[in-house]
Specification:
This protein has 218 residues and is an alpha+beta fold. Helices cover 28% and strands 33% of the residues. It has a single domain, classed as Electron Transport, Fmn-binding Protein, Chain A (Pnp Oxidase, Chain A, Roll), CATH 2.30.110.10. It is an enzyme of class 1 (oxidoreductase).
Amino acid sequence: MNESDNLQQIAHLRREYTRGGLRRNDLPADPLALFEHWLGQAVDAQLPDPTAMSVATVDEHGQPYQRIVLLKHFDPRGMVFYTNLGSRKAHHLEANPRISLLFPWHMLERQVMVLGTVEKLSMIEVLKYFHSRPRESQIGAWVSKQSSRISARGVLEGKFLELKQKFQQGEVPLPSFWGGYRIKIDSMEFWQGGEHRLHDRFFYQRDADGWKIDRLAP
């Protein structure tokens, strides 16, 4: 098979979305209620990494970047994730706190997009979560200067063993460069696949009275 055949095959890849629709009368007034319901269904369906979300940030030149991060908490104040504060995404968010999240629940023919701005979590929140992690993950947080260039994987493995020995007694201390963010939600979009490409899309936009809901064309 040549390159032209491969491209033609890709162009014709498609399938029907038949798992059901989403109707205006089914929508709660608060988007987090629908998000919680959908996330619960993703967990019940045993999707791999149901809390995985694509996190998009923009650098000082306007270049967007994306990466997969795990959602660790959500409540009416927003959605929470943790990271190295020296990472590329952290530098982006320091200069531009606007952020986009995408939950790609393909097996359920659903996706949820979130737009908002971030604020750093308090030291108490970060410390509480850090010490709830497996000990090896706590040590792993110390090992990597995230997004920096390294010569080989062996550098990381050697550093991990060194720090595992160093921290073999007592608690692993919280690194000064490790923290988290809360996304203060401005809008959420819910997408449910539909037959004949007639997908259902609903957009929640925060306003002075709560949330405004619009149906979007697929």
